[in-house]
Write a structure and sequence with these properties.
8-stranded mixed β-sheet, 15% strand, DNA polymerase, domain 1, 2 domains, alpha/beta, Rossmann fold
């Protein structure tokens, strides 16, 4: 039986993309938007950061980018009151230079990138990003060519183990990969719950510090399917080329792989002047109101004038 996202889709309804913005005030303080400035929200999501920028700096312009069409549609409705101050782009932020050229804006004043997966993407069974409900093994955020299942079927056991170890930082990756590939051979791997069962067969059901044993494997596959590390590397590389002197790049990461890449890039003192030596984390109040913010880390740096 072929399982597709449509088998798990809810009935059509008006565009919604309810997502709580993480570290919103701290991000705005870092980029310090001004009237007349041009800013990029590289991960538009629910539009929260874009809205905050335009409320803080009337007369600014924000280019919002997202590879998820539903996010674009919902944000267009949410941000309609700002008129031409908002320009929305369906695409990847690794193509930022091309997006800016299309608008005739080669230089900008700030970039915000919230690298977390949006709540609607996690909770939509049709996306297959979570083991909390059954869905297809898809995991694509946008136009990625391969689903998670297709990726698993293409890789050898050793390649899959390496992927889970690298992107999930999972020490038990060999056992997990063997159980996953066994499920494939037996025709028992079609949905997210099938994948979780394969992981549990490999490592047992015990939770480590309250974390489900399948968490790291799901993270690794999602990162690989959407080329998330390659996208972030591209953004860190191109940001100095599109930011004007004093322009700020603010990145919110949610796991150590992303954070290490950002930290390493910002250590290039000939390019960046860090706004803080340590990452900014959510306050106790914010973590109580939004538990997902517990793992968020904000790093921001200002482009050094050349």
């Amino acid at each position: 039986m072929n399982v597709t996202p449509d088998d798990f889709m809810p009935p059509p309804e008006a565009p919604t993309f309810g997502h709580t913005t993480v570290l919103g005030a701290e991000t705005i303080a870092a980029i310090a938007p001004r009237s007349g400035g041009v800013y990029v929200d590289a991960t538009l999501g629910g539009g929260g950061h874009t809205e905050s920028i335009l409320e803080a700096a009337p007369g600014a312009t924000v280019i919002g980018i997202d590879q998820d069409r539903r996010a674009i549609d919902a944000s267009r409705e949410r941000l309609s009151r700002f008129g031409d101050s908002v320009k929305l782009v369906l695409g990847r932020f690794s193509a930022l230079e091309e997006h800016l050229a299309a608008f005739g804006m080669p230089m900008i004043d700030g970039i915000v990138a919230d690298l977390g997966v949006s709540s609607p993407q996690l909770t939509d069974p049709g996306r297959g990003m979570s083991f909390r409900s059954e869905g297809p093994l898809d995991m694509r955020m946008g136009d990625a060519e391969e689903t998670a299942l297709e990726l698993i079927e293409r890789l050898s056991t050793d390649e899959l183990a390496d992927l889970i170890y690298q992107y999930g930082e999972e020490r038990r990756s060999r056992r997990i990969a063997r159980c996953i590939q066994q499920a494939v051979r037996q025709g028992e791997l079609r949905t997210t719950l099938d994948l979780r069962r394969a992981v549990v067969r490999a490592v047992g059901p015990a939770r480590v510090g309250g974390v489900d044993p399948a968490t790291r494997t799901f993270q690794a596959l999602r990162i690989a399917v959407n080329h998330e590390m390659e996208e972030l590397t591209a953004l860190l590389d191109l940001a100095p080329r599109v930011l004007g002197p004093g322009g700020v790049l603010a990145v919110i990461s949610f796991h150590s792989l992303e954070d290490r890449l950002v930290k390493r890039a910002f250590l290039q003192t000939a390019v960046w002047d860090r706004l803080s030596t340590k990452p900014i984390v959510a306050s106790r109040v914010e973590t109580e109101q939004n538990p997902r913010s517990r793992s968020a880390k904000l790093r921001a740096a200002k482009k050094v004038a050349s």
